[in-house]
Each structure stands twice: as structure tokens, then as C-alpha cells.
Amino acid sequence: MDPIKVETLLKVQQLRDQFDNLEKHTQWGIDFVEKYTKFVKERSEIELNYARQIRNLSKKYQPKKKEEDDNKYTWCRAFHSTLNEMNDYAGQHEVIAENMMSQIIAELTRYTQEIKTERKAHFHDGRKAQQQVEASWKQLEACKRKFERDCKEADRAQQYFEKMDADINVTKADVEKARQQAQMRHQMASDSKNEYSSYLQKFNQEQNEHYYTIIPNIFQKIQAMEEKRIERMGESLKTYAEVDRQILPIIGKCLDGITQVAESIEPKNDSSQVIESYKSGFEPPGDVEFEDYGQAMKRTVSETSLTNSRTDSKGDRSSKSKCKPLWPFIKKNKGANPEDFSHLPPEQRRKKLQAKIDDINKDIQKEMDQRDALTKMKEVYIKNPQMGDPNSVDPRLAEIAQNIEKLQAEAQKFEGWLAEVEGRMPVKSDPPKRTSVLYETQNNTPPTNNNCAQDRESSPDGSYTEEPSSEVQSKVQPETAESGDEFDDADEEIQPTIGTCKALYPFDGVNEGTISVTEGELLYVIEEDKGDGWTRVRRNEEEEGYVPTSYVEVFLDSNAKDVFSWRRVFLSEDS
Questions:
Q1: Nearest to 237 by CA among 24, 43, 93
Q2: Does the pLDDT of residue 163 top 90, yes or no?
Q3: Where does the protein principally reside (predicted)?
């Protein structure tokens, strides 16, 4: 016999009296497998819940439609990429849960049912063999007690026969009867002896077979079952580690992706985007000059001058109170935004209008593509009438034509607004100066109400119109009362030209004090822009007025510049 088998047999024989303990141990092993299966199942549920929470978190912080403009910043794109990577990261944890369910939990559940069935069969065979041995032992004991009883009965019958045979008073017939009874008992004892001996031999044989063959075989099967259970337990633990190890490269790629987008953040580029997004297109306002109210003290005091001064002062205060503040301090309109985006600064308005035009052009292109496709379909129907009725396409073609016409009209409307904005965009030049009311009055310029027109012309709250209010119309009214009689003759004289200008865009001077010009027209400049956005020009001796400074290109004479500079110095010293 193989030495290994002999050694295994000897070990098993050592447990032949520990059948109940082995049964408890194997049941504990199966319970442990079920416990481990439950552990893996709970771990997979944790992974699923974790992945679900990560996905919900990523979805929660995904950019909304109104936040799509944030993608122009690198740090926003990096965060959105991180959310996408976290979504993939959550998917890997779902893979962990799925692999644990299929490779560990399902396999262990199936194996647990198999090992329970196998264990039940093995211990059923063991109990059956044990019961057979116990039954044989009981039968042997019964044979043994019968043999013992028959031997005792034979001894008593022999003693009775010998007593009867020795007694002279007993008849011969009684002696013979006692002798026969003794012989019968001896025969019964002999038969019981033979039966006991035969069954004893049989029992010993069955007992040897039970302890050296049947039980060792059963124990070997139980041992193999237990070793297989332990081996499967080790394989499950190894699979448990492999399931995690398999997704580590992909998780590493997710983390590498987050690192890459983090390194791609460009602070300077983002700050440039902020500047590009929010630049208004306004030029900074000019310097505010000193207003010398002490000039009025030099005048001759009279009832007329005092009355006029008071009247004019009230008018100035009323006109100033109507003027809007400088554009950096104007509050945004909280009402509904106008269709032409006039509530935005020039640069922002231009971008919005351009984007709107691009969207409309895309819609027009889609409609035209549909029209071309339907036209080709109609041509096919005309050539092959069996494929369809050509007239069935006409209603749709008519509807598309109307849509295209509407879209083109809307595009023209927005293009007109865009052209207006681009024409009014300020050109970089020397910073203008804001002059006082007194200085403008002395130089026969329009009153300070023009500042109101400038505010409407270039303020962020959308006042880009060619029709100034009644405040602007008052700019051409001479303030002779404040200027005094000494300036009456100066107003009637024709002011000299200080340069020329070329109209860059057409302008309809519909308001009082303005003049209409056509694109490319050459005019004389008689008064340059003093920071209010208007330049005074002359066409001939009879036609002169104000035009927007951004609509003309001014060419000042060098002598005129010097004259104006000296005149300002003279006036300031005189004041």
C-alpha cells in the first residue's frame, strides 16, 4: 500500500471516535464561507452606493446651460474635465461591484449549495455505517446473552439429573426423564454457542470493515471536501484582490487626466478672457476743468444783470440736474433687456449682436438646405410620377420660403444695429477735456447740456440713439443773458475754421442744432470736440451745425491748435 495512503489512513483512524466533532467542524466551515460571501456582498453594495454618490455629485456640479460661457476659462474647463473623470472613476467602482457579484458571490453561493449537499451525503453514509455496526453489536449481545442463559439452564438440568440419579427413592422413569432434559439443555447450549461464535466472527469482520474501510473512506471524502473548501476560500480571497487590482490602471488614468487638466490651467489667458469679455469700448472721460464762478463778481451790479444771472443760474442748475452722471457710475437698468442689446456697452453690444447674427445665419442655412432637399425631391417626383406627387412638396417649400424671408429680415435688422455700433465705436485719440459752462459760453459753444447727449451717446445703459432728447435741442440756444452784451457782436460774426473733416458715415441731422452729412463729404471744422461727443462743422456760410465726433475724421490745422491753446491760456489768466 502507498505510504501516503497508510499515513492518511492512520490519521483518519485517529478520528474514528470524533465523528460528531467532525460534523460540527465542517458545518462551521460552511458557515464561514457564507459569512465571507455576505461580507463580499456588502462590500459590493458599498461600491455601488459610492459610485452612485460620485455620479450624482458629478451630475450636480455639471455646468448648466446658462453657465456654458464659463468653458472659455481654463480653470472652468479643468473643473468640468475633473467632473467627467470622476464620472469614469465612479464607473470603475461599479465594475468592482459587478465583478465581485459575478466572480465571487455567485460562485461561492453555488459552491456553498454543492458543499452542503456533499457534506450531507457523507455524514449520512457515516451515520448509516455507524447504525449498522451498532445493530450488529446489539445482535451479538443478544446471542451472547442467549448462550449464557442456555449454558446456565444446561448446568441446572445436569445437576438435577445427577441428584435424581443418586436418589434411590426416585423411580427409573423420573431419572430417565431428568437425563433427557439435561441432554436437551446441553444441546441448546451447544447450538447457542455455535450461533454466538458464528455471529461474533461476523461482527468482528463487520467491525473491522467499518473502522478500517468504510469510516476511513467517508473521512477521506470529508477531508477532501474540507480541503477543497479551504482552497476555494483562498481562491476567492485572491480574486477579491484581483478585482481591485484590475481597475487600478484605469483609475490611475483618471487621476492622471485630472492632473493634466490642472496643469493646463493658464491664469494669464483667463485674465485676458475676462478683459475681452467685459471691456466696454468706452474711452475714459476727459479732465474736469476748473469752473470759475468768481467771474460774475467782475460784472457791473444792476437789477438786470442780477435778474438774468439768477434766471440763468436756475436754468443751469435745472439743466445740470437733468444731466446723467459719468458712464462709470450709471446704474444698470433692472428692467427687461431690449432686443438690440442697447443696455450693454459698445463692445459687449457688438459681440452680442454678432453672435445673434451668426445664429440667424445658421438658421437660414438650415432652411436653405431643407429647401434644396425638397427641390431635388420635387424634381425626382416630376421625372418619376409613380414615386410621389410633385405638388405635395409645394406647401412645405412655401413655408420654408417664408421662414427664410423672416430670418433674412431679422438678420438685416441686427446687421443695421451692428453697423450702428461699429460706426459709433470710439477711436483712440488724445483724451478730451471737459470744459466749464463759463468757458463754453465765452467761446459761443453749445451749453453744458451737450454732456447729457454724450452720456446718452456712449453710456452703458444703452443710450445709443441719433435722436437726443429736448435737453440736447437746447444746446444751440445762445445764452446771451449770461454772456452779456459784449458777446452779442461775437455771436453774429462768422467763426474762423480751425481745420477740415471727412464724414466716415452718413448722419441725418434731424434735431435742432445738428447738420446732415453724407459719407465721404468734406466739411470745415469751426469748433473741435470738447469732450461732449459733438464737433461743430460748416458746409458753407449758411449751413453749419453739430455732428457726432465718431462719425467724422478731423484734420486740425497746426495754427488753429496754437490759437486755441493761447486763447485758453488767455481766458484762464483773465478769469
A1: 43
A2: no
A3: membrane
